[in-house]
Amino acid sequence: MTVNSSEYKSKRQWSEIISLINSARRFVFSTHADPDGDGLGSELALARWLKKQGKTVDILNPTPMNGIYRFMDPSGEITDFKVEKHQPVMDAADVFVVFDIGDFKRLNSVGEAMLRTDKPRVSIDHHPGDKHQFTHIMDDASACASGILVYDLIREMGGSDFTKEIAEPIYAAIVNDTGNFRFNNTNSEAHAIAMDLLRSGVEPYPIYMNIYEQTSRGRVELLKYTLENLKFSTNGELAWSVLTQENLDTADASVDDLTGLSDFMRSIKGVEIACSVVALNGDPVKVSLRSKGKYTVNDVAGSFGGGGHNFAAGAQIEGPLDEALALIVNACLAKVGASTDVW
Predict the structure, then answer these.
(1) Are residues 172 and 138 in the same domain?
(2) Half-sphere exposure of 166 (CA within 13 A, CB side)
(3) Which of 42, 90, 293, 323 is the most buried (most CB within 10 A)?
(4) Are residues 277 and 165 both part of a single domain?
């Protein structure tokens, strides 16, 4: 695939969403709880482009962003949603647009506020899943990131020369969800669009550095506990590790420092499925699953009410840690065709 600025033609059907956007004046954007670089980059890029077209856009997210992504929003365009403060903003909106949301429940109170109105709700996403709460849907699992879809939409709406402030968050979205063009979802479309974004002035290293080279000492300590607690099964194809509130407190780490631990386990030679299990006080047990590609894991996560991509997914399991751990490890063992007696 090549990107020609003068002859661009999308392979996707955007006409209904474009008509809706053109007819509206005020928008509310959002993404999932614990937003990542893809959700944040997607909403920032489209918001900045629409504002240049004279539209009003408020970005209201259900939870604060991880500190590593703050570089993407230096002027504070993104606001943490508070229902008592922002319900009037929701009521005044003409259209809601949600990015990167595989599961509507992950919108938390933002989703509840959306459902209290009869305004159109648009999903722009690359995750499979049930989207019945939305009136307009653009879901394409062939896109490596929701940011790819935002680029595609802007081009279809007549955008050609991307300013750096619009190009950077799209590039960050792609870098985030492809592991800096390393994961098996990386494709020719991602590289072609990245090349066009570089022509718009994007500097790759600062974006890479901010996302992947900001490891805190707390995260290093959590990585130590991850290795200490690491277990293997089925000749090393399955690896899992458990972290608890005690580990977090001892490491003087934050919840933000938990990001990427399952990716590290997946990098171990011979591991096909990596499972990070986190039990924090008062929260459901959180499970992060990663696969090198031999086995899918979104179906494993889906059996516990979670979801994600074929090879990167997550879920939350209610109940005591021991019970949750047994459930998820047994599910992973079944996925690789092993007996649940082996661990």
Answers:
(1) yes
(2) 22
(3) 42
(4) no
Beta-carbon contacts of 68 under 8 Å, excluding residues fewer than 6 positions away, are 210, 211, 214, 256, 259
Per residue in 46-90, pLDDT (tens digit) is 999 999 999 999 999 999 999 999 999 999 999 999 999 999 999
Q: How far apart are CA 167 and CA 312, in angstroms?
A: 26
Give me the residue label for tokens 């516990």: 304
**3-state DSSP assignment of residue 233:** strand
Residue 255 and residue 247 in contact, taking contact as beta carbons nearer than 8 Å: no
Listed residue (285, 265, 261) closest to 274, CA to CA = 265
Structural domain boundaries, residue 250: 217-335
Same domain for 143 and 58: yes
Q: In what order do the strands lie in the sheet with 273-279?
A: 231-233, 238-244, 273-279, 285-291, 312-317, 307-309
Q: What are phi and psi of 307, to 5 degrees?
A: 175, -165
pTM here is: 0.88
| Domains of the chain: total | 2
Residues 6+ apart with CB under 8 A from 254: 67, 216, 218, 248
